[in-house]
Amino acid sequence: MKGLPLAARAFVGAVVLAACVVLVLGVRHPFNVGWMLVLALMSAALESRMPIVTGSSVYLGMGIPIGLASYIILGPWGAAFVGAGAVLVMVDNTVVKRVYNGAQFALCAFAAGWAYRYFGGPVGHLSASDFPRVLFPVLVAVVVLCAVNGLLLTGVVALAEKVPPRQVLAGTLLKSIPGYLGYGIFGLLMAVLWVGVDIGMLSAVLVLMPLAVARWAFSQYSAEQQAYEATIHALVQAVETKDHYTRGHSERVSRASVLIGRFVGMREDRLNALRYAGILHDVGKLGVPTKLLQKTERLSEEEFAAIKLHPVRGLEMLSDIEFLDEAFKGILHHHERLDGRGYPMGLAGSQIPEFARAIAVADAFDSMTSTRSYRGARTVDEAIVELIRCKGSQFDPRMVDALVSSLAKEPWVASGVDLVAELGQSGTGPGGDLDGVDGPIGADHDDPTFSLAFRDEAS
Amino acid sequence: MSSLARRIDERRGTMLLLGAALVLVAVSVVLALQQPIKQPSIALAFGAFIALGEAVRVTLAGDREAAPLGAAAALAYALIGRLGTVPTTQTVWDVIAVTAVASLLGALPHVAAGRSPRLDVLARRVLAAGVAAALFRPLYDAGNGPLGRLEMAHRNGWLAWVMVVIAVLAGLCDAAVAALVRADRDRAPFMPSLRGELRALIGLGSAIGATGVLIALAAEVMMLWAIPVFVIPLMLTQFSFRRYAGIRSTYAQTIRSLSRVTEVGGYTETGHSRRVSELALGVGRELGLSDVELVDLEYAALMHDLGQLSLAEPIPGGATVMTRPDEQRRIAEMGAEVIRQTGVLDRVAVIVERQADPYRRPHETVDDTIPLASRIIKAANAYDDLVGDSRETGRHLDALERLRLSMAYDYDPKVVASLAHVVERTSRLGL
């Protein structure tokens, strides 16, 4: 309780007091105590076993369907006791939080149960003749539960953490309504089997089984997804050890591409694909002999042709990864120019896929703001000037503007300035052979000044 | 031997399964034609969901085909007692006939799209439904059997437990048959295959079983509406599993692609890591590795040469078998270091790290701290370095001979023996 504002303490006290009153009054009403204990313990166990996952999506505990079944099975007073069982939930919470949660759930369940009964919902029995009439009181009960829960939650969060009430309401309450409705149906199904078919608590196990399994599979999925991301990043870094000056380049290009994509309004799934395209855009460089990539003198036509192959090589390597799909185009065409003088295909203007146009800008930007052997890193402002200069000839103006506007909002973390120090430390790592670091490393094929200069002379 | 005869001979267990299912289905269809099903609307409703489930079947991680909806609907049709107040009358044969016909119909869209109908999976589904029906229908006997009387006495709690037990038994039978087919296909020992199938069953299988029992029980109150209503949560489950399988296959595809960096970079021969991983997987399956171990083995085999990236000069032909032991070890260690950077593939890193270690050193006993996967990769890598993509029988024989000669120290004799089987089987060299 310490550290809580006075108003919040008063609020918590009032809620707990109200819940106590309901529970004390509830003792005088008959309900099946055995079932109540089973429901309460089950609910608490489920909530403890599957703790809250924080993130952008709203999380609804697995105990909620049990709560939504309890008022049909036991009526409002019994449901209040089941809700109060939330004090037993073993998530690392303080005692105050647990007591408050119990009180809040007890009040919610009581209000929902009361509404259910008020609108003619049968308590303790259900049969085929009750359908579809029973759906209406169930719907009302879910809405009431949502409303009471939302109000209490908003109250306590607004008072304790000083968040504007409207933000809490919009953030959690509105998003959780579909979930609650779904769980309301589950609660009804459980109750149908519990008191209608009369199989008791086995119904809870059976009804929740597919749900629990789905959730388990989803957690497996998330874990695998994270492992996947980590693996891609590590392997791409391994590839980058071939050329020390491009360390972290792929990651930053990916980041900048997403900034651009988000600004031009790409959907979330496309942004995700763009992110991967950014990370993987240069893997084909492995197919290019290192000495060519690092060469400082002007390249011969043949040598340049070898460099020009790297997007194609990248595509060849990755073509088996089905989900990349649109990302392929981004990887293949990230060196095309708006005026049609790029490579590998010489596409021009709107022929160039959107992903490729975004990556081209991000790529050039990171190249300019990174240290190269033949020059230091340029500042973000200098790089922007250069990008703007190439607008229309090399780059899609829309993408350049998107990057410039995004950078105005979010500060950019360019590549490490004391790169040489960093390299010195990692000299014993997998990239142990530091050949070429001391000597001159070649001009960067991603650098627009370099590529323009070369093209102008060559053409 | 003709190639068909050879195929049949090779896959005896699968053929046995298909034969048994065919006989069962033929008998039940004949019986159903002679004595038409008495409650056709119930059969039709369940049949429709079985077919739908088959049409939207999914491939799970570990290359397992599953049609949760179809399986749950078939189980429910085998276990349903009363629909409202009317006892159901379908026989065991009716259940088999409806399940078989509906599954085949549901498989038609897959055939039309050029995919395999996976007859072995269909046969398993029919057998599992048959087992559940054979255990339940005679005891229920249209409401007159002991289970029917239990139901009339409103002892539904007991009835429900009986159904749960029957569902579990049907699931176990299904897993056993699946293990038989898999052991057959992969030439793997039966027990590890069974463990793998049981582990796979626990998740999705319990959701399927629970849904089947729920539909069968809830039909007393909700009539046939119970099917669509309880199928919805199962769809959610199926969706989650498919997402998981999706990321797993993306993961595998990505590792396969990125492992080609050594080839694109000119360090190793084209196709080397893919060939080594296929050979290693064949050996791993035959030696009874679990699903998780096989995934680790595959990733490690694909990335076993990653350490070469940090070499200044590529080894001629990329063949590590030709390099000095200390150099081999250095490459292995550097590769492991890269893999360890991912933070999530530690087991794979250990496998890669130990691939250069000899199986036994002179005057010492066998070093059993070396993971089996490392020993497999060591042998598979050496074999592929020696043979490459050559199809000459002589080179294969020479390579095998060289491995055999080094069995005392470098290679695990068990692994080499199995590798010889796998080579013989997959290349059809007729050794």
Q: What's the helix and strand layout?
A:
The complex is a heterodimer of chains A (459) and B (431).
Chain A: H1 6-26, H2 33-49, H3 64-74, H4 76-84, H5 95-118, H6 135-161, H7 165-196, H8 202-240, H9 249-263, H10 268-280, H11 290-293, H12 301-308, H13 310-318, H14 326-332, H15 354-368, H16 380-389, H17 397-409, H18 419-425, H19 448-458
Chain B: H1 3-10, H2 12-34, H3 40-55, E1 58-60, E2 64-66, H4 68-79, E3 82-83, E4 86-87, H5 92-112, H6 119-140, H7 146-152, H8 156-186, H9 190-222, H10 226-258, H11 261-264, H12 272-286, H13 291-302, H14 325-340, H15 346-354, H16 372-387, H17 393-405, H18 413-427
Antiparallel strand pairs in B: 1-2, 3-4
Gross geometry of chain A: elongated
The main sheet of chain B comes to:
2 strands, antiparallel
Give the H and E element order of chain A.
Answer: HHHHHHHHHHHHHHHHHHH
CATH class placement of the largest domain in chain A: Mainly Alpha
> What is the residue-mean pLDDT of chain A, rounded to a whole number?
78
Query: What fold name stands as the CATH topology of the largest domain in chain A?
Result: Hypothetical protein af1432
Structural class of chain B: mainly alpha
Largest interface, Cβ cutoff 8 Å: A-B, 66 and 65 residues
Secondary structure: helix percent of chain A? 55-70%
Structurally, the number of domains of chain B stands at: 2
| Biggest sheet, spatial arrangement of strands of chain B | 1-2
What ranges of chain B have pLDDT less than 50 throughout 5 or more consecutive residues? none
Structural class of chain A: mainly alpha
Q: Work out the helix count of chain B.
A: 18
Straight-line N-to-C gap of chain A: 75 Å
Q: Which CATH architecture of the largest domain in chain A would you pick?
A: Orthogonal Bundle
How would the global form of chain B be characterised? elongated
